[in-house]
Amino acid sequence: MFQHSYFDNKAASKVNFAYAMISKGYLRMKHYQHYINGAFCDPVSGSYFDTENPYTGQVWAKVAKGNASDVDAAVKAARAAFEGDWSAIGPTARGKLLVKLAEIIEREAVRLGKIEVRDNGKLIAEMGAQTKYLAEWYRYFGGLADKIEGSVIPSDKPGIFNFTRYEPLGVIGMITAWNSPLLLLAWKLAPALAAGNTAVIKPSEYTSASTLEFMELVEEAGFPTGVVNAITGFGLEVGAPLVDHPEVDKVAFTGSDVSGQKIYEAAAKKIMPVTLELGGKSPNIVFEDADFEAAIMGAISGIFAATGQTCIAGSRLLVQRSIHDKFVERLVEVAGAAKIGDPMSTETHVGPVTTMPQYEKIMDYIGIAKSEGATCVLGGDAYNGEGVKGKQFVQPTIFTGVNNQMRIAQEEVFGPVLSVIPFENEAEAVAIGNDIVYGLAAGVWTSDIGRALRMSEKLKAGTVWVNTYRAVSFTSPFGGYKRSGEGRESGKDAIKEFLQVKSVWIAQQTTAANPFIMR
Ligand code: NAD
Fold this sequence. Notes:
The protein is α/β, with parallel strands linked by helices. 39% of the residues lie in helices and 19% in strands. It contains 15 helices and 23 strands. Strands 15-16-17-14-13-19-20 form a seven-stranded mixed β-sheet, sandwiched between helices. The chain has a six-stranded mixed β-sheet with strand order 10-9-8-11-12-22, with helices on both faces. Strands 1-5-4 form a three-stranded mixed β-sheet. The termini are far apart.
C-alpha cells in the first residue's frame, strides 16, 4: 500500500523485526505518504520529516511534509466526493460502511495500539484497549446515519406546508493533537461521515503514523474515493492552509487553546463554524467524607495516567483541610511506587513524555512552581533511572502549599505534575474550582449524594465526575466550558455539529399575492 514500504507491518512481530533491521541499516526506513483521493502519494515538496519513538528517542519512520498545494489537492478530492458519490450513496449505505469500518478496527486494534505506543509513548495497557474501543464510535454514529430526521412544522400560515431537513455541511477539516490521535479522530470522523460530509485530516506532526495506517482500513471498508483524505505536516504549513481554504466548510480541532484561538480567528474571517476541543486545568475535589482509597486512586488516575498528557488531567487536587496531610502522605506513597519505563510493557505505570518540547515545558513548570514557593513532596526532576533508555522522562511530581493564584495552579502543564490546594468547605471548593479560565472537566469525591448533586450543578465544566475520573464514552457529550472549547463531541447530538438545518416552505396552492408585504 505504501509505495516506500519495504516490509509488511501487518503483524507486530514483523514490525519489531523490521525496526531492528532499520536500526542496523539493512532496510530503508518506512515512509508514510499522504492519502489523497484514494491513493497514497508523495508530498508535492518531495520532502519527508522524521518521527521518533519517545521511549528510545530514535527515528523509526519518515512522514510526508505537506504544504498548501497538498492541502488544495486533498480538499478538491473531498469536495468532488461530496458533490458526487458520497451524496448519492444515501444514509443507510453510509451507516453500513461505518459499521464495516468498526469491524475492521476491532480486527486491527492490537496492531494500531502498538503503532500509537511507538509514536506517542502512551502505555500499551491503555492504548490496546483504546484502539479496540474506537470501533464503538464508528458503530454508534453508523447507526445514527439514517436517523437524521427533520420535522413537519405546524405552520400558522394557512395553505403553506413547512418542513425542515438536516443537510451535511460539506468538506470538514479535522486537525488533531498528539496525545491520542486515533481517538480524537474518531470523535470527529464518525459523526461527520454519518452526517454525510467528507473529510481532510491533519494529524499532529509528532504522531502522524497511526492516522496514515488507519487510512488503509478506511480503504478496505470501501468508502468511495476522496471521502476521507489525510495529509501530514506542520501546523503553519498544513493546518493553517486547511483552515483558510475557501472550500473547507468547517474545522473540527483538538489541541491547545493558543492554536485554537488562531483557528477561531481564521474561521471568523470566513464565517466558518468550528468545533474546538482545547486544554484544561481541571479541579479534582476530595471531601473528608469520601471513600479514602477510592479518592487516592482517583487522584492518581487524574494526573499520572498517560503521564499527565491528557486534556482532562485533574491537575489541581483540592483536598478538604481536615484530611489534607493524611491524604498527601498516602498519595506520595502510592505515586512514589509507580513503575516508570517502557510503555510497551504492561507492568509500566508512567511512560515517557511524547515530545522533547513538551518535556522541556514540563521541566520549566516544575522550576516555576519551586520559584513560586510551592513545596515539592514527590519527584520534581527528570527521571533517569533503571529501564529508561531515552531522555524524555519526568518523575511523578506533587506540589503542596499551592495557592490557586500561582502559575502552577492556573496554567496547563500537560505532564505528571500535581498541585495540591487545601479548602475548608463546599463553598470554598466551588470558588477555587471555578477560579480558572478553563472548564473542561472536574472530579468530586464524596459519600453525600446531596453534595454530589450540588457540586455537579455549581462546577463550571463540560464534564463532572463523581467518585470516578477519566470516564468517556461514545454515548456521552464531551467538550469544554469557557476557554476549554466550543461545541461538543460524542453523544447523539454530536452529529448536529456536522449538519445544518433548512426550512422548506411549499404553498399548497399558488396565488398571485401582494408582493410588497411579508407572507
Ligand atoms: P497544538 O495546538 O500545538 O497542536 C494541535 C494540532 O494543531 C497539531 O496538528 C498542529 O500541527 C496543529 N496546529 C498548530 N497550529 C496551528 C494553526 N495555526 N493552524 C492550524 N493548525 C495548527 O496542541 P498539541 O500540543 O498537539 O496538543 C496538546 C493540547 O491539546 C493540550 O492543550 C491539550 O489539553 C489539548 N487536548 C485537548 C483535548 C480535548 O478534547 N479537549 C484532547 C486532547 C488534547
